[in-house]
Every structure is written in structure tokens, then in C-alpha cells.
Amino acid sequence: MGLPLSWILALTSASAAEVTCPKGMVAVAGAGVVGMRGQPYGIVATAHLEKVDAPERDCPAAVARTPGATACWVQTDLVDPVIPLHEVEVQPFCIEAYPIPGKGYPYPADGLSVWDVHQLDLVLASGIFGSRRLCTTTEFEVAVAGLQANQRFVFGDRYVPGVCSGETIGSDKRCMNAETGVWEYGAVHSHWTRADKTFIQSACPSPPCRGAGNRPLTEGMYIVAGGTDRAQTRQAPHTPHTWHDHGEPTQDSCGFHGWDDQPVICADPGAEDPKAAAAWATFVADVRVSGPPRRAIPPAAGLHTCP
Fold this sequence. Notes:
Number of domains: 1
Distance between the termini: 51 Å
Number of helices: 7
CATH topology: paralog of FGE (formylglycine-generating enzyme)
Helix content: 10-25%
CATH architecture: Alpha-Beta Complex
Strand content: 15-25%
CATH class: Alpha Beta
Number of strands: 12
Structural class: alpha+beta
Order of helices and strands: HEEHEEHEHEEEHEEEEHH
Low-confidence stretches: 1-14
Radius of gyration: 19 Å
Shape: globular
Mean pLDDT: 89
């Protein structure tokens, strides 16, 4: 399925090598096949249980009975899709090499609600950070998996205990994709993206796929991509090939920050305006001081984003 590897190598290296990106970003481009290959998870289901008590104890047995499995997925009562194999072609784009707030800094303790990410999206759309924007879900998947390798996990094809468990971003040299140059996305936090046409057409094994509340997927919807290594999770752990939807961006979600969801930032290629670069550096510095990115959004927006 897909293009010959020699074509993929040529497309990826030739297109990305010619791209100019803002400081701290790497370029990705080309055509290939992405999505989950095979079944690398031994699955522990919990939806049928009246009481859920340390279900991770069943992980060794679940992995042992699943041919080719190297990782365990303890599913919650809400199980979200794993993206199947599908062909993609992406025009050159730039993506932050390291998740916010950058290499050497601790991971933020909690995440963004759908309302928070909507406010951040409005700030990005204002242009104060130049061409920076939320990545599309396909861009996220391509950057983390790679068009050549299409890694099943963020660090390769086999789960290795202890990988991506560093306390600071970039501290584990194994927790990255050597092909694209991006680190750790989907390993510690899942990441907010925007749904694009390619993703919508291939978001689940049996399209048309639907999000929260059985609503149809539409372009521009806020989608959380990538799965973390929590003991129990809706999304398959340590992979870019999974997603879920938290619903409409309303202020009702202002007070809830229970998910470990963070933004993933892309940009259009080209030279960066110095004012935009300075504004972005200030935003990232605010995140480093305040912790969760949601606390840095109101100063950037110039208003209170929640009542």
C-alpha cells in the first residue's frame, strides 16, 4: 500500500530541505502512508466492570495473549479510535521540535480545555505570533510517526519500558523521531490539533467517523491527538495514531482542566518577522513561569478568557 520507499525518501528530503522555518521549528513534507500497523497493544477492557480496581494487574496476561503486542492499553469506559493505515501527502510545514515550553523544562502539570484551546486559536489567528497556528491532526501524525518509518509509537515500533519517562522535555534521547526531528509529542501529554480533510476521511476503521456526542467530524474541529502513558486512558498510549474530541468550545468547560492536553504548534514556511518571534518568545517564557499554557493565554489575548 502507498508509494515506493524510494519515492517517499526523495519527496521528503527534497521538499523539507528547501524550507525555511522559524527558530526552534523543523520542516516536514512529502507523501507516504501513516496509521497504526498491526496490533501492538494487549488490551485490558474495563467498561464491563462494576468496580475498577488496579486493572493494570492484567497487563502481562493481555500482552501475552496478543500476538506481536509489546505494550498494554487499559481502556476506560470511553474508547477512542486508533487511526488505520492511509495514504497522505503534506505540503511543507514547520512544527515546534519540542513540546511547549521547550527543551530542558518540566512538563506542564495540567492541560487545556476545549475553551482554552479555542482562545489560543483566536490569539494565533490574530497574527501576533506570525504564521504560527495549531497543527492539523494529519500534520501531527506525520511529524510524530514519520513518512518513512511510520512509527507505531513516538519512539519506534516496539514499546520499551521507561522510554519517555524523563522529568524534563528532551532529557530522554530515545523519546523522539530521528527522521523528522520532533521530540516526545503524545508521550507525556496528548496534543490539541485541528481536524483536516485527510484525517476526517481516515479517522477510524469504518468511516464516517464521529466525535463527542456522536457529532460528525468537520474540518477545523479541535481534536486531541496522541496517547499518553497513563495507567488508564481513552487513547492508546505512546502513539500518534489515536485521537478524541472534547466537544464544542464553550465557556462551560472553563473550570475543567483534568486532561493532560497541550497545544502543538505549526507554522507556514518562510522568514519570520522579528516582532512575531519576540511575541512568541514572551508567550513561551510566560508558560515556563506560570506552568500550564492556559495561564499564559489571557495575557497574550489581552483579556480574561473565562468568567
